[in-house]
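User: I'm new to structure prediction. If I give you an amino acid sequence, what do you actually give back? Let's try with this one:
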Amino acid sequence: MQKAQVLDKSGNVKSEIELPEAVFGRPVNAHLLYEAAINYLTNQRRGTAATKTRAEVSGSNRKPWRQKGTGRARAGATRSPLWRHGGTTFGPRPKDYGYELPKEAKKNALRSALAAKFAEKRLLILDDLKLQAAKTKQAVGLLTALNVDSALVVDGRDNAGLFVSLRNVPRVKAVDWKLVNTHDVLAYKWLVLSRQAFTSLMEKLK
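Assistant: Good question. You get back a string of structure tokens that encode the predicted 3D arrangement of the chain. For your 206 residues, that looks like this:
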């Protein structure tokens, strides 16, 4: 069974932790990672883009001129899509772009993302991520000590000081371990977890 090092806040090795084969013992499924990332981005779409049809634009339904005898093309209304300020033909309408991946596919994608991060040696497990005070300076100091510039930081929601301290740090996102998703793991260079969050996440993915 593979093992990972558990670090302290200075980046020094404190102990080791076993990595479950169910998560880290399988090959990385690149296509499943792609499907999960696209699914996440698609579900973020608001789907509010809209254009007005000829029934919705302002204007009269009066025939602008008689049908024959003027020498001009026949016209039935000024709201025609052919006219300036007319309606739009086949324009976008509000819609829901969201769709669901199978639960097991989501789990397998997250397993693959975690395995890929470990293979790249960009998975860091810290003994704990609690700060002395909820200050951005302390959070930045922690990341600097770990030599991390872009990271997804994972811990329990009860560690509120960490989330408050990291919310204004660029290229860093802090999430509760229950909300970790494949897209976020892939979007950041490093994955930093507290030991407690790592253990809870592994129990969820077994």
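You can read the tokens as a compact description of the fold. Here is one thing that stands out. Strands lie at 3-7, 13-18, 123-126, 151-155, 172-176, 190-194.
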